[in-house]
Design a protein that fits this description.
378 residues, alpha/beta, Rossmann fold, 2 domains, four-stranded parallel sheet, 14 strands
Length: 378
């Protein structure tokens, strides 16, 4: 009898513990560049994630489990990102981290996430974040080699074979430059000029003058604001008529505002479907989600939703989907890796043990700046 009572007691204890665990909120950490030069990335990411967590909790949580969100502003600083990631893991005891916003910060935080076995869902695009695959690291923006391929496909269609590139000397720009040089050669393009600028540079006329003298068929700029906006203005000032491509790193109206509609006119870039959601066919699987996100963001923050905020939205959906496996870090990691056909803002995710990004060419549309707005390139 005593053994039976002890057995029943142990079962009850386990059930009570399981119920208590199920009732515990899932604590999500986030590292975003809310202020500083990369605030155009981090602010919409923070706004979006906070909005989604609030909406989910109002509905009773995800799978009946409430969510707690702890957000820190990294200011785009690599050292601060590592410090705050450590704080999220050690002090705040989060089960998963969303962010950071930039490639450089993400690369710096990765060793800590791997060591502490905490899933990290980066909101940055650099291919080295997830290639080679790291067990605990995922990312929501499509890899930069996908964006490079989209640009080169468009350039080939336009019979632009001699290419000039100008890239920023940070993690995002270095990764893009590496992919541009590797893929251009494979696809039969000739790079006639290869220029670099610093993240804080305020004038790139010297580099663009060299590019102009190389007589390229097209110029590809790889960076995030404000540099590309300055380059767009410098191109206009120098009277360069060569077609100008930008990377997906400027896929928000902020770029057009910084460059000015006149200087931005005609620039082409790969971007997620959110930028042109109102121009998609009704049967596009992302169309309704994109429209609903934009409406909710406008209502909450008074401005249109951006592709960058969409990266945080994607992370939220992936976490919600992964929660089916359980809320412990290892369970979330397994759930993220098994994400299949998850329709989100950036595309349709199909993760696997060999691919912790899960997006392909279909994640991007080629768009052109026309009269201060985006239009699909046909």
């Amino acid at each position: 009898m005593k053994r039976l009572i002890a057995f029943v007691t142990s079962i009850v204890t386990l059930l009570v513990a399981a119920a208590a665990f199920a009732a515990e909120p899932l604590r999500i950490g986030a590292l975003f560049s809310v202020t500083g030069p990369a605030s155009f990335l981090g602010e919409p990411e923070k706004n979006t994630l906070e909005m989604l967590v609030k909406q989910a909790n109002a509905r009773g949580g995800v799978g009946g489990r409430k969510l707690e969100l702890v957000v820190y502003d990294t200011q785009g600083d690599v050292t601060k990102s590592v410090q705050l990631a450590n704080k999220l893991i050690k002090n705040d005891r989060v089960s998963v981290i969303v962010g950071p916003s930039t490639t450089g910060e993400s690369m710096a935080v990765i060793p800590l996430a791997e060591k502490e076995k905490i899933p990290l869902i980066s909101c940055a695009a650099g291919i080295k974040i997830t290639e080679p695959v790291k067990k605990w690291v995922f990312k929501t923006p499509a890899n930069d080699h996908v964006a490079v391929e989209k640009i080169l496909i468009q350039a080939a269609r336009s019979k632009q074979k001699n290419i000039a590139i100008i890239t920023v000397s940070d993690g995002f720009g270095s990764s893009g430059r590496e992919q541009l040089k590797a893929m251009a050669g494979k696809k039969g393009f000739r790079i006639v000029a290869d220029e670099v600028y610093g993240p804080k540079d305020t004038d790139m006329t010297a580099q663009l003058t060299k590019i102009k003298s190389s007589r390229p068929d097209a110029i590809i700029c790889w960076g995030t604001n404000p540099g590309p906006a300055i380059i767009a203005r410098n191109v206009k000032q120098l009277g360069i008529k060569t077609p100008l491509y930008m990377s997906h790193g400027v896929a928000s109206k902020k770029f057009i505002q910084l460059a000015g509609a006149d200087a931005a006119e005609g620039i082409i870039l790969p971007a997620g479907k959110l930028t042109v959601f109102d121009k998609l066919t009704k049967n596009d699987p992302q169309a309704k989600l994109l429209r609903d996100y934009d409406q909710a963001y406008r209502k909450g923050f008074g401005v249109e939703a951006s592709t960058f905020g969409g990266y945080a939205y994607d992370a939220f959906l992936l976490i919600s989907n992964a929660l089916k496996k359980g809320g412990a870090p290892a369970q979330l990691r397994d759930g993220l890796e098994q994400s299949r056909r998850v329709v989100s803002i950036s595309g349709i995710f199909n993760m696997s043990p060999a691919d912790h990004n899960g997006l392909d060419l279909s994640a991007f549309e080629m768009i052109r700046v026309t009269k201060g707005d985006w239009e699909l390139v046909k």
